[in-house]
Amino acid sequence: MQVKKIFAGMLVVGGAVASIAPAHADQLADIKGRGELSCGVYSNVEPFSYPNAQTRQLEGMDVDLCNAVAKQLGVKAKLEPLAVEARIPQLKLGRVDIVVANLAYTKTRATQIAFSDSYYSTKEVLVVKKADASKKLTDFAGQKISAADGSTSAQSIPISIKDGQAVTFHDTSSAFLALEQNKVKGFVTNQMTATKIAKQVDGTDGAVAIASEPMLIEPIAVGLRQNEPAMLSAVNKALASMEQSGEMSGIFNKWLGPKTPYGLTRTDKVTPIDQLKFTPVS
């Protein structure tokens, strides 16, 4: 009988202790508590995040975005350089708080992580010979189109060109060479790479043009851990504030805008991904 009373007392005390134990703080509270936002960025991909040749400190569009988001949250940014393939795993493992590394939305990624609102959209585009500059995507039905193996560019070919025959190569340079050698009728790559290539060969016999219709539109957003609603809301609020103040456009123009080698014009605003019209890839 005495043993039962003691055991019952232990249950009561244990219950009391359990009831007063602090609940695990959410991610946003953890970040604010330590005063630091761990931000996963590319280790060396221009113009997003790469070491400055003189200082060896990371700089780039994504570095500026990380610092700006951290400032909006009232903390300091801690940059964590990541390999391209490590972006999602490191985020899922909790080794970084967020990923800002030109991260495109895909169906597969959306099952693994959460995405913020999109802050700009990149495009996969079709590069063609100058003579084909006025043609539409439908005009390339059934044609051979090159792209880098395993890329979103390659995935876009059967999506955007009816019966398009994807011819893939180990790298972008080889895929472009196939167009130059007339082995394919077009070459698919991202808009920034296409713009640089077009400028490099302009005025030569191998001059190319970018088709007016994009092959694919890819929303770029901040990657976050799943099931952290307060953190997701805070990041979206930060992005909206940066949009409203003009800071977002300033960062974009500094690294990708008309006065840069990429020559892009930002037409997108910070927008929830589910409000965008695009065909997501797997």
UniProtKB/TrEMBL annotation:
InterPro entries assigned: Bact_solute-bind_prot3 (IPR051455), Solute-binding_3/MltF_N (IPR001638)
Tagged with keyword Transport: yes
Highest taxon above the source species: Bacteria
UniProt xrefs under SMART domains: PBPb (SM00062)
Signal peptide segment: 1-25
GO annotation, biological process: amino acid transport
Keyword line: Signal, Transport
GO cellular component annotations of the record: extracellular region; outer membrane-bounded periplasmic space
Domain Solute-binding protein family 3/N-terminal per the UniProt entry, residue ranges: 36-259
Family: Belongs to the bacterial solute-binding protein 3 family.
Protein name: ABC transporter
